[in-house]
Structures are given as structure tokens and as C-alpha cells.
Amino acid sequence: MRRVIVTAACVLAGSGMGVAAATAGTAVGTLAGQTQISYGCPGPVAEGGPSCNPWRTFAQARFSVSPSASGRIHIVVSDSLGRFSLRLAPGNYTVTSLPQAHTRGGTTLQIRIRPGALTRIVVRFQGYPMME
Known about the structure:
Layout: E1 4-6, E2 10-18, E3 22-23, E4 26-27, E5 29-38, E6 56-57, E7 62-67, E8 74-77, E9 83-88, E10 91-97, E11 108-113, E12 117-126
Parallel strand pairs: 5-12
Antiparallel strand pairs: 1-2, 2-12, 3-4, 5-6, 5-9, 7-8, 7-10, 10-11
């Protein structure tokens, strides 16, 4: 399993796993995952103690998925548990977080969808105002 993490205003982690899918004789891939948001850690953390995990489910989060070649841009909205799933033609895509309540959006990542494969990502948004 391959895992890539990019840190910025939005963090996306991807991995490839096999899944069969077909639409009208054309193999497609699936992009699925969860959206999360962080406002930072609330208060001090004891040295040597467990560290703060500020990431929380970001329900109804919006981001776009667009093919590198010209084509249809998909606006994805996660459900109430921050989950999403989208079937896409194989190819290279750009995932871009969109501005919305509590986050400015704008961070992008390049991903590759393979035919018959499931690509999982975690889309992490930096919320504002941040706690220090």
C-alpha cells in the first residue's frame, strides 16, 4: 500500500487498493474518503503525555475534482459524517479545497485514478480562527 501525505491548508493522503468497477463497458475508478477540519489544539499538552489530535469530521465540506485534461469539473460535498465517494474515468485529477464557512480553501493536490481501483484520500482543511 502506497501512502502520500501533503501538508498545507489541506492535507490529502492517498493509497491504491483494488476494486472492480465498470460503466457501459468502460472501466472506471473510485475516489473515496473523508473530510476533516482542525482549529489547532485547545490549550497546553503535558510533556510526555498523549499529543493533541485536533482533527474532527468536517460535514458538508466542499472541494472540486477536475481532470488534468479539459473536462467536467466535479464539485464534491461530504455527507454528515464527512464521507464521500465518486466514480471517475481513469486519469490524472486535481483536488482543490473550496472556500466555505470556517475555512478559506485553495489548496490543491494532484492524484491519479486507475481503472478498477479505489483511491482513498483524507481531505483536511485548516479552520479559522486557529487556537494556539
